[in-house]
Structure formats: structure tokens, C-alpha cells
Amino acid sequence: MEKIGKYQIIAMTILFMIGSTPLYELGIEAKQDAWLVVLVAMLAGLLLLCVYLYIQNKNSEHALPQILNRHFGKYLGSLITAAYIVYFAYESMRNTREFADIINISFLPSTPLFILILLMVLLSGYAVWKGIEVFFRVTEFLLPFTMIGYILIVLMFIGSKIIHLDRLLCPCLKTESSRCCKQLCRR
Q: What one-character-per-residue DSSP string does the chain give?
């Protein structure tokens, strides 16, 4: 039985949450209210997580396909399981492609894209082959470097005078979309 420590789980959770988030412009249409969009999405995700954890705790001896088959029947449960498989396969392929694009554009412009994708797939396969304990040890090793990188980015932004700390408490809900939300709430 492979053992995973508390720090390894924390490191994995943090790195998973960071994930591919920097690649997307979350809430960009909300302009200065983008942080509210992220906050609401986080709360919705937390609620969904609570539902998943409740279902898992009630059926802790079963895997997800077994839970779905048990509650939705053999055919509908199998269809939902297949939808999960297709969705996560698509997400993993898309994330692999986007990371390969970012690496290709910013670091290795002369390297063919299929080589970068092949290397990522081979590294992922190697991690699966070595087991979950080794995978979690790698995340434990990478977390300090990731955190140092993010701290340096924030310090560089502050040092470059791009961020104006005197405007930190700027008014929110000033965009057109939020005005529409205010009007809907009044009715």
C-alpha cells in the first residue's frame, strides 16, 4: 500500500487548483468586477464539491461508475460514466495542447508541437507507471518553486508600478453587466 503524507496532499491540491488557470482570462468581460465572478464561481464549485463529497461518503465502498449504475440504473449509469470519460479525456487533451502551445510560443519556438505533446504524454505515462506515491512526491518537490515563481511575479508587478495600490479599494459593480444584475435584483 502506497502512503501519501499530509503535505503531499496539500501540495497536490494547491498545484491542481493553480493548474491551467493562468491560461484563461477568467471573468474578463466583467472588467474590474472580475474578482466577483471568480468568487461566485468558487462558491458554486465549493457547493458542487460538497455534493460530490456527500455522495462519495454515502457510497464510500464503491467507485464512481458503480455509484452511477446503482443510482441511475445500468444503461443510464453507463451512459453517464461514458460521458465522464469523454469529458475528462477531452479536458486532458485540451490542457495538454494548450500547455504545449504556451511552451512552444514562449520557450521553444523552433520545436515541433507534436514533440512537446509527445514528451508531456510520455512524462504522464511514466508518472502513472511509477505510481501515485512518486507522483505526489514530485508535486511536493515542485510546490516551493511554483510558490516562489508566483511571489516573484507579484513583487515584479508591484515594483514595476503597473499596480497602483492607491486604487486598491476601487468601487465595484460599475460595469454594464453588473448594472443589469442590479436592475434584476430590484424587481
A: -----HHHHHHHHHHHHHTTGGGS-TTGGGGGGHHHHHHHHHHHHHHHHHHHHHHHHHTTTS-HHHHHHHHH-HHHHHHHHHHHHHHHHHHHHHHHHHHHHHHHHHT-TTS-HHHHHHHHHHHHHHHHHH-HHHHHHHHHHHHHHHHHHHHHHHHHHHHTT-S-GGGTT---S-SHHHHHHHHHHH-
Q: What is the pLDDT of residue 147?
A: 92
Q: Is the dihedral of CA 11, 14, 19, 23 positive or negative?
A: negative
pTM, full prediction:
0.61
Q: Could you report the per-residue pLDDT of 111-151, keeping only the tens digit for each? A: 999 999 999 999 889 988 988 888 888 888 989 999 999 89
